[in-house]
Write a structure and sequence with these properties.
heterodimer; A: alpha+beta; Immunoglobulin-like; 2 domains; five-stranded antiparallel β-sheet; 2 helices; 15% helix; 38% strand; B: alpha/beta; five-stranded mixed β-sheet; two-stranded antiparallel sheet; 7 helices; 9 strands
């Protein structure tokens, strides 16, 4: 632990400044000690909540296509075969999404599985949609952290609206927008 | 820490008094007081952010849990009161969970006679649990918890609701250890060894 930051060479003033400085030093030491002590039971790795480990967003590309996106944090991965897209309320209908190939991995129980890391972009066809129609895209996913824990199947959703024919791609909408420092 | 500073201040100053708006305190007392307050604040802040573990708490709520086993019979956890109880939340979709379970099977065999009891709570479907249980020759009960079991684990300190999560309860009904992530054999041996 560092000594209190009192420079021995400087002339000492009496009374309050010294006491305050010493008190401040004591305070720093104590806070540091408490933080260190608090860190000890936290030997468990610092893990992200699933909505931050697997950030889901989507945008409309055209009236017949939405683009779903996962930003998988470093040290985390999603299982390809657990990824599902649907629409809340069932309308408009979705076509079959062509999931990109993942990284193959042998699982002793499930056999060969594929996993996604980093950015995963999936184009999902939308069927019989009309312009302006609300589209709540729901993603079911399941993933794990390299630190050795897995998260249960998780559902996230974003609210979109079907664009008019010929309109530009819509803005990317996040399922869990980042809020301020303290959320 | 603050002690050397207060000593030095005390040596050099003829009137080691700090005045705080008329209130006069010896300087060492002011420093000590500030330290104690800061320590209390620090601990309080750290506790608030880390969510204190349930270690040391009574396992009454856990004992009160009743869940079906793989044959559909309801099992209450308090039937294992008085034993050293290791409750392991797991699922087949959790590879790290599956990895650590064969070692639990071995430990159950080795220490079951001394009063150690493993109980699994699976956040999963019965058929998958059965399949995996037979694959590894599961020799302790695994109850079928479903997603409700994740909420139960949260009340025991699993704030992230991730798996595996393990709770060790002593014979006296107190929670001795909770762990998110795999429990290494050496760690398990060391914790359980003190309780048996």
């Amino acid at each position: 632990m560092d000594r209190p930051p009192i420079s021995p060479g400087s002339p000492r003033k009496r009374g309050r400044p010294d006491a305050l400085r010493a008190a401040a030093a004591g305070l720093l030491c104590a806070v540091a000690l408490a933080a260190a002590a608090a860190g000890v039971p936290g030997l468990e790795p610092k893990l992200l909540p699933p909505e931050q480990a697997f950030r889901f967003s989507a945008r409309t590309l055209d009236p017949g296509t939405v683009e779903a996106r996962f930003d998988v944090a470093d040290g985390y991965y999603l299982y390809r075969d657990k990824l599902r897209f649907s629409v809340a309320g069932g309308a408009p209908a979705l076509g079959v999404a062509a999931l990109p190939a993942g990284k193959r991995k042998h699982d002793e129980f499930f056999g060969d599985v594929e996993t996604y890391r980093g950015v995963v972009v999936v184009r999902v066809p939308v069927v019989d949609a009309r312009a302006g129609q609300p589209l709540v895209l729901v993603a079911d996913s399941q993933g794990c952290a390299d630190a050795g824990v897995c998260y249960p199947p998780n559902q996230q959703q974003v609210r979109l609206a079907v664009p008019a024919a010929g309109a530009a791609a819509g803005p990317l909408v996040e399922a869990h927008p980042r809020k301020g420092l303290f959320n | 820490m603050s002690a050397p500073a207060s000593d030095r201040v005390g040596e050099r100053s003829l009137s080691p008094q700090a005045t705080w708006g008329g209130l006069s305190l010896p300087r060492w007392a002011a420093v000590a007081l500030a330290g104690v307050i800061a320590l209390a604040v620090g601990v309080w802040v750290a506790r608030g952010t880390l969510e204190p573990s349930r270690v040391g708490q009574d396992a009454t709520a856990l004992y009160g849990v009743a869940l079906p086993d793989l044959d559909g019979r309801e099992q209450r956890l308090d039937q294992w009161r008085g034993k050293v109880l290791v409750v392991n939340f797991w699922a087949t979709w959790c590879a790290p969970c599956r990895e650590e379970m064969p070692q639990f099977v071995k430990t159950q065999t080795a220490l079951g006679g001394k009063g150690l009891q493993f109980v699994g709570i699976a956040v999963d479907q019965g058929d998958k649990i059965k399949q995996f249980a037979s694959e590894i020759g599961l020799n302790y009960p695994s109850l079928v918890g479903g997603m409700g079991a994740m909420e139960l684990s949260k009340t025991l300190g699993n704030d992230l609701m991730a798996l595996p999560f393990t709770v060790i309860v002593g014979r006296d009904g107190r929670i001795v250890h909770t762990q998110l992530g795999q429990l290494k054999q050496a760690q398990l041996d060391s914790i359980v060894g003190k309780l048996l």
